[in-house]
Specification:
heterodimer; A: about 850 residues; mainly alpha; 5 helical Cullin repeat like; three-stranded mixed sheet; 34 helices; elongated; B: about 80 residues; alpha+beta; Herpes Virus-1; two-stranded antiparallel sheet; 1 helix; about 10% helix; Znf_RING (chain B); cullin family protein binding (chain B); cell division (chain B); ubl conjugation pathway (chain B); nucleus (chain B)
C-alpha cells in the first residue's frame, strides 16, 4: 500500500493521521466517540488536505484499508454462524451497524470532496469498487493509481459506477477507462448536475466515503455469502408458504440490506434486483410449479382455480411485505405463468361445461384468472366458447319452438328477448360485462337473429330481366319485429293489456334486437307499411309513442332520409287535420267527411290508382273537397287513392242496426244493393256497377262473403261452395244475408260495431314475390349510389377497400352480398361510371 | 235492409299543376325535387311567373340572384315577376 511520496508530505500525513485513525476505527466499531474526538477528526482531515498535496488521496487509501479490515472481521463473525436463522440474524445485525455508520462516517471527510484532489479520489473509489474482481489490495491500488494519473472527471465515475455488480466487473472496468478517455466537459457538467440533484435528501448519500464503505461491503462480505443469505431467506419464505412459524423480520432485513447496499445513484435497486428479486422469483416459481400440479391432480381443475386465485392474492400480500414495489409486476407475471399459463389448457377445457351449466361464479373466477394472462390467450378461448354456446343454444331454442314462433310474432320476439336476457345476464354476472365478451355475445346474437334455418323469406338475387333468378334466403326476423311493433303501437288486445311503461320497454327491446338484424331495410319497409295503415285508419294506440319511436329509430342509426320520411308522414296527418277543420267550417253539411292529403314522396309508393264508382253520396262530396283544396293550395291538384280510403256505414235490417267499418271498395259493392235489397246480383253485374278492376273486386267480394272469425257473413253467394276468390265466375251470384247480425257469446246482438277492413290494402294486387323484388331493386340502387358516392371522393380505390367502405355505408340498411356488389360494379363499369385500372384488375378508377 | 254512410275518410295525394314536365333550370321533373332537396312536396315548392313559366322555387331564386341587373325569366326573357294567385 505504500508508495513513493515526498518526505515533507509524508511528514504531515504521518504526523496527524495515526491519532485520527483511532477515532475512525472507534466509529466503525460503534464505540463511544467523544464530542472532542469527533471534532478532532474534522480538523485532522481538513489539516491534512490543506497542507499535504496528496493528503486527500492518502487519507482515502488509509480509510479504505480500515474499512476493509473491519468488514473482513464482520464477515468472519457472520460466517461463523451455522444455522439459517442465526446467520441471517447476525448478518442483519452487522449490516445495520455498518449501514448506520455509513451515514455518519462520511461527514468528517467532506473535505475530500472539496479539495482540488477530491474528484480524482471520488472517481478512483468508484473504479476501485467496480473492479471487485481484483481481490488483492495491491491490484486495486494500482488500478486507482492508474486512474488518478490520467485526468479523470465525474462523468467517468458515474459511468463506471453503473454496472457495479460483481459479475459485470470486467466490462465495467473497460467502460471506466474508455469513458475516462473520451468524456467531454459538457458531459462532465451534466453528470455532476444529476449527482447533485439526486443527493438532496441526504448529504452523505453521494459522498465518496460512503460509496467506498458500501462498495467494500458489497465486495468483501456480501459477494461471498449472498447465496447463503438468499437461500436462508428463501427457506423462511418457503416455511411461511407451508404455514410454519417464521420470522418475517429476517427476510425484510435481508431485503433492506440489498436495497441500501447499492451505491449506484441512478439505479438504487440494482443489487436488490439482480440478487434478491431474482432469487425470490425463482423460489416462488419452483414452489408453485410443484404445488400447482399436485393441487390439480388431487382436487381437480375447478378446485384448482380457487387455489390459484387464493394463492395469487396471498402472494400479492406477501410481496408487499418482502419485495420492493418495483418487483410486484414481475412477480405477478411469474406467478401467472406458473399458476395459470402452465395449466391454461386444462382450465380452458372446463369452460364450455361451465357456460352450459350457467356456473357464473366459477366462470367469473376463471375469467379473473384468464384476464391476468398476457395477450388475452385465455380470454379469447373463453370468448370463443361463449360465442359457440350462445349460437348453438340460441338456434336450438328457436328450432324447438319453431311451430309457435314462425306464426306468432309476439311469441317470437318474446322468446328471442328471453334468450338475449339470459345470455346478457350470463355476460354480466360471469364476465362483469367485459367489452370483449359483450362483442362475442353480439356476434352470436347476430348469427341467431339472421339465421335462416327456422324461417326465411326468399329474395331474388338478380333482377328479373337478367335471366335466371336465384333466391337468397334471409331471416324473417325483421318482418316479425315490425309486426310486433305494430301490435304494440296499434290498438290491439296486447297494447290494451300493457301499461305505457311496459309498451315503452318492449319497444326498446325491439330496437335492441333490431341492432343485430343485418337487413334493416326489410324492417323499415314493414314498419312503414304498418305505420301507414295505423295513420290512415287512425288506429294508433298512442300518437305520442308513435313519434317517440321514430326518434328512437333515428337514435339507433337508421338512415336519416328514411326517418325524415316517417316524420313527414306525421306532419301530413296533422296538416290534414287542420284542413278538415277548415273544410267543415266552410261547408256545414260535410261533418262526416274526413280527408287525408298525403305527400306523395313520403308515403309508401303507390303509383297505380284504382278506379271505382263511388256511392252517389260520396260522389257529390268529391268536387267540394277538390275545390276547397284548390283554394287553399294553388297550383296543386288532388289524386284520390280510393283503395286506401275507408269509412263507417250503418247497416239496418230486421234484426238490428249495425255500424260497420269498411273500405271504400266494400262500400261501393254494398251500395249496389241499396235500390234492390233482395236481388241476387251476378259477379259480372257487380263489376259493371262498381267499375272495380277484376282482382280488386274478387278480393273485396271475398272479404264480404268469407270474413275471418265472424259467425254470419254480410253477403252470401251461389253456389256457396267456393273455396277462394279465384273461383268466382261471371255468373256467380251474390246476395245480402238478410239474417246478418253480429253474434257475441252465441247470441245475436241488436246493435253493434264491426270492423270489416282487416288489413288495409296499401297497394293494388301484388304478390309477395313482387314485393320482395322491389326490396331487391331498392338494394341495387342503394348499392350503386353508395359505390358512386365513395368513388367520387376517392377517385381511385382497390376492391377490398371499396367493399369495406360500402358495407360501412350500407350496414344500417342491409348487408350487401359479395355477389350483388360484384354485379353492380360490373354494371357501373359497363355504363362508364368507372373503369378498372389497366395494370391492376382490382383497382377501380372513377370516371367523371 | 238499408245501408247509409256514417262517415268517410278519403285519402289523396297531390301533384303540381305545371305546364311542363321538367323544371327549365335544373331539368329535374317537377314531381321530384330541385338538386338541393331530398324530399319532394312542400319542402321544395314550385313557383309561377306572370309569364306563366314555372320552376322549382329554389332554382329560380338562385337564378335571379345570379342576374346582376335585369331579373328575367330564363325561358322567355320577359322580366320576372312572381305570379301570386
Amino acid at each position: 500500500m505504500l508508495r513513493a511520496i515526498g518526505k515533507k508530505d509524508r511528514d504531515i500525513f504521518d504526523e496527524v493521521w495515526p491519532d485520527k485513525r483511532k477515532i475512525v476505527l472507534k466509529l466503525l466499531r460503534q464505540d463511544t466517540v467523544s464530542q472532542r474526538e469527533w471534532q478532532d477528526l474534522f480538523f485532522g482531515v481538513h489539516f491534512v488536505c490543506l497542507w499535504d498535496e496528496k493528503g486527500a488521496a492518502k487519507i482515502y487509501d488509509c480509510l479504505q484499508q480500515d474499512i476493509v479490515e473491519f468488514i473482513v472481521h464482520a464477515q468472519s463473525q457472520v460466517q461463523a454462524q451455522r444455522g439459517e436463522q442465526a446467520l441471517l440474524a447476525t448478518y442483519i445485525v452487522e449490516w445495520r451497524k455498518f449501514f448506520t455508520q455509513s451515514n455518519y462516517l462520511p461527514l468528517p471527510f467532506r473535505q475530500l470532496e472539496q479539495s482540488p484532489q477530491v474528484k480524482p479520489a471520488s472517481s478512483s473509489s468508484a473504479s476501485g469498487a467496480s473492479t471487485s474482481a481484483s481481490t488483492s489490495n495491491a491490484a486495486s491500488c494500482s488500478n486507482q493509481a492508474a486512474t488518478r494519473s490520467s485526468s479523470v472527471n465525474p462523468a467517468a465515475s458515474s459511468s463506471a459506477a453503473s454496472p457495479s455488480g460483481a459479475s459485470t466487473s470486467a466490462a465495467s472496468a473497460t467502460a471506466s477507462t474508455s469513458a475516462t478517455a473520451s468524456t467531454s466537459a459538457a458531459a462532465a457538467a451534466a453528470a455532476s448536475n444529476t449527482a447533485s440533484s439526486s443527493s438532496k435528501k441526504n448529504p452523505t448519500e453521494d459522498s465518496p466515503v460512503r460509496k467506498l464503505m458500501l462498495d467494500s461491503w458489497n465486495k468483501h462480505i456480501f459477494h461471498d455469502i449472498k447465496h447463503r443469505l438468499q437461500d436462508s431467506a428463501m427457506k423462511i419464505v418457503h416455511a411461511e408458504r407451508n404455514g410454519d412459524a417464521y420470522d418475517a423480520q429476517l427476510v425484510v432485513g435481508v431485503r433492506e440490506s440489498y436495497v441500501n447496499l447499492s451505491s449506484n445513484a441512478e439505479d438504487k435497486l440494482e443489487i436488490y434486483r439482480e440478487n434478491f428479486e431474482m432469487a425470490y422469483l425463482k423460489a416462488t416459481a419452483e414452489f408453485y410449479r410443484l404445488k400447482s400440479t399436485e393441487q390439480q391432480q388431487q382436487n381437480g381443475v375447478l378446485a384448482y382455480m380457487k387455489y390459484a386465485d387464493a394463492k395469487l392474492r396471498e402472494e400479492e400480500v406477501r410481496a408487499k411485505r418482502y419485495l420492493e414495489p418495483s418487483s410486484f409486476s414481475i412477480l405477478t407475471y411469474t406467478l401467472v405463468k406458473v399458476l395459470i399459463v402452465d395449466h391454461l389448457n386444462s382450465i380452458i377445457a372446463e369452460c364450455p361445461a361451465l357456460i352450459r351449466d350457467y356456473e357464473t361464479e366459477r366462470l367469473n373466477l376463471m375469467f379473473r384468472l384468464m384476464d391476468r394472462v398476457l395477450h388475452g390467450v385465455g380470454v379469447e378461448a373463453m370468448m370463443g366458447d361463449l360465442q359457440r354456446h350462445i349460437m348453438s343454444a340460441g338456434l336450438a331454442d328457436m328450432l324447438s319452438a319453431s311451430d309457435i314462433i314462425t306464426q306468432d310474432s309476439e311469441k317470437y320476439v318474446e322468446r328471442l328477448l328471453e334468450l338475449f336476457n339470459k345470455f346478457s345476464d350470463l355476460v354480466r354476472n360471469a364476465f362483469n360485462d367485459d367489452p370483449r365478451f359483450l362483442t362475442a355475445r353480439d356476434i352470436a346474437f347476430k348469427t341467431v337473429v339472421n339465421d335462416t334455418s327456422v324461417f326465411k323469406m326468399e329474395l331474388p338475387t338478380s333482377i328479373a330481366n337478367r335471366g335466371v333468378k336465384f333466391t337468397a334466403p334471409e331471416s324473417k326476423c325483421p318482418e316479425l319485429l315490425a309486426n310486433y311493433c305494430d301490435m304494440l303501437l296499434r290498438r290491439t288486445p296486447l297494447s290494451k293489456r300493457l301499461t305505457s311503461e311496459q309498451i315503452d320497454a318492449r319497444l326498446r327491446d325491439v330496437l335492441l334486437v333490431l341492432k343485430y338484424v343485418n337487413n334493416k331495410d326489410v324492417f323499415m319497409r314493414y314498419h312503414k307499411v304498418h305505420l301507414t295503415r295505423r295513420l290512415i285508419l287512425g288506429t294508433s294506440a298512442d300518437s305520442e309513442k308513435e313519434e317517440d319511436i321514430v326518434e328512437w329509430l333515428r337514435e339507433v342509426g337508421m338512415p336519416a332520409d328514411y326517418v325524415n320520411r316517417l316524420a313527414r308522414m306525421f306532419q301530413d296527418i296533422k296538416v290534414s287535420e287542420d284542413l278538415n277543420t277548415q273544410f267543415r267550417t266552410s261547408i256545414s253539411r260535410h261533418d262526416a267527411i274526413n280527408i287525408k292529403i298525403l305527400n306523395a314522396g313520403a308515403w309508401a309508393r303507390c303509383s297505380e290508382r284504382v278506379s271505382v264508382s263511388l256511392p252517389i253520396e260520396l260522389e257529390d262530396y268529391i268536387p267540394d273537397v277538390e275545390e276547397f283544396y284548390k283554394k287553399k293550395h294553388s297550383g296543386r291538384k288532388l289524386q284520390w287513392y280510393h283503395h286506401m280510403s275507408n269509412g263507417t256505414i250503418t247497416f239496418v235490417n230486421n234484426f238490428g242496426r249495425y255500424d260497420l267499418d269498411v273500405t271504400t271498395f266494400q262500400m261501393a259493392v254494398l251500395f249496389a244493393w241499396n235500390q234492390r235489397q233482395h236481388d241476387k246480383i251476378s259477379y259480372e253485374n257487380l263489376r259493371l256497377a262498381t267499375e272495380l278492376p277484376d282482382p280488386e273486386l274478387r278480393r273485396t267480394l271475398w272479404s264480404l262473403v268469407a270474413f275471418p272469425k265472424i259467425k254470419k257473413q254480410i253477403l252470401l253467394m251461389e253456389p256457396s261452395a267456393i273455396g277462394s276468390p279465384k273461383d268466382f265466375t261471371e255468373n256467380t251470384l251474390f246476395y245480402i244475408n238478410q239474417e246478418f247480425a253480429i253474434v257475441k257469446n252465441g247470441k245475436s246482438q241488436r246493435r253493434g260495431k264491426l270492423n270489416l277492413i282487416g288489413r288495409l290494402q296499401l297497394s293494388t294486387e301484388r304478390s309477395q314475390q313482387e314485393d320482395n323484388q322491389s326490396i331487391v331493386q331498392l338494394r341495387i340502387l342503394r348499392t350503386q349510389e353508395a359505390i358512386i358516392k365513395i368513388m367520387k371522393v376517392r377517385k381511385r380505390m382497390n376492391n377490398a377497400a371499396l367493399q369495406g367502405e360500402l358495407i360501412d355505408i350500407l350496414k344500417n340498411m342491409f348487408l350487401p352480398s359479395k355477389k350483388m356488389i360484384k354485379e353492380q360494379l360490373e354494371w357501373l363499369i359497363e355504363h362508364k361510371y368507372m373503369r378498372r385500372d389497366d395494370d391492376d384488375i382490382n383497382m377501380f378508377i372513377y370516371v367523371a | 235492409m238499408k245501408v247509409t254512410i256514417k262517415s268517410w275518410t278519403g285519402v289523396a295525394t297531390w301533384r303540381w299543376i305545371a305546364n311542363d314536365e321538367n323544371c327549365g333550370i335544373c331539368r329535374m321533373s317537377f314531381e321530384s325535387t330541385c338538386p338541393e332537396c331530398a324530399l319532394p312536396g312542400d319542402d321544395c315548392p314550385l313557383v309561377w311567373g306572370v309569364c306563366s313559366h314555372c320552376f322549382h322555387m329554389h332554382c329560380i331564386v338562385k337564378w335571379l340572384n345570379l342576374q346582376p341587373l335585369n331579373k328575367q325569366c330564363p325561358m322567355c326573357r320577359q322580366s320576372w315577376k312572381f305570379n301570386i294567385h
